[in-house]
Design goal:
Number of helices: 5
Radius of gyration: 31 Å
Distance between the termini: 85 Å
Helix content: 10-25%
C-alpha cells in the first residue's frame, strides 16, 4: 500500500514539475594534427647506441658492436680517458657522459668522431646511466662497461677481461684494483694475485 501511494505521488509530481531532457553533446578527444600514430616498424622494442648514417645506403653502416663502454668524463681527465678507450677494441660502442659541458674539445681524438657525446653539467655517472642506459637500449649488447674516468688501465685488456667474465658466468663484475697504485676503498675490489677472480 505504501509503495503504491509513493508511486502515485511520484507520478503526480512528475506531471506537475515536468523536466526537459536535452541531449548532452559529447566531445571526442582527438590528437592534434601531426600527433597521429607512427607507421608500423618505426617504434621498436629495443635499440642500441651504435651510430648509423643519416643518409645513403644501409650497406654503408658499420657492423653493430657487441659491447658498450660508457664513461662519465670531464675534459681535465682527457689523457686517462684516451688511454682507457685505446684499451677497448673496435667491438665496443663508446658513449661519453660529459658532466662539465665540454664536448667539442674531444674532437682532438680520432675516436671521438665515432663516440656518442651526451652532456649535462654537474651530474654523476649514475644520473646519466639511469636516464640513458635504459634496459631497452643496452639489451642488444653482450656486456656493458660503466667505467670510471680515473681508473688506471696500464695492466688491463678488455678482451681478456671479457673472456674471464664469460668463463666464470659473471653477470656483474669489476676488475680488481692494484692497491699499490691507488687508494683502497673496499676490500672486495682489491686485486688478488693468487686467482683470476674472487667473489
Amino acid at each position: 500500500m505504501a509503495l503504491s501511494a509513493a508511486m502515485t505521488f511520484g507520478f503526480f509530481i512528475g506531471l506537475t514539475f515536468p523536466v526537459a531532457i536535452t541531449p548532452k553533446i559529447v566531445k571526442v578527444a582527438r590528437n592534434p594534427q601531426g600527433a597521429e600514430r607512427l607507421p608500423p616498424g618505426i617504434v621498436v622494442s629495443e635499440s642500441d647506441l651504435h651510430l648509423r648514417r643519416l643518409w645513403g645506403s644501409p650497406t654503408e653502416d658499420t657492423a653493430t658492436h657487441k659491447y658498450l663502454l660508457a664513461l662519465a668524463v670531464g675534459y681535465t681527465e682527457r689523457v686517462n680517458v684516451d688511454a682507457t678507450i685505446h684499451k677497448f677494441s673496435n667491438n665496443f660502442d663508446v658513449v661519453l657522459f660529459h658532466y662539465d659541458g665540454r664536448t667539442t674539445e674531444w674532437d682532438e681524438f680520432n675516436w671521438s668522431e665515432q663516440a656518442i657525446h651526451i652532456s649535462a653539467r654537474k651530474q654523476t655517472k649514475w644520473w646519466f646511466a639511469k636516464r640513458f642506459l635504459h634496459p631497452s637500449i643496452v639489451a642488444p649488447y653482450d656486456y656493458v662497461f660503466l667505467w670510471d674516468e680515473d681508473l688506471g688501465v696500464e695492466n688491463f685488456t678488455a678482451e681478456a677481461y671479457i673472456n674471464i667474465v664469460k668463463k666464470h658466468g659473471l653477470g656483474i663484475s669489476q676488475p680488481g684494483l692494484d692497491v699499490t697504485k691507488g687508494k683502497k676503498l673496499y676490500h672486495v675490489t682489491v686485486k688478488r694475485d693468487a686467482s683470476e677472480m674472487h667473489k
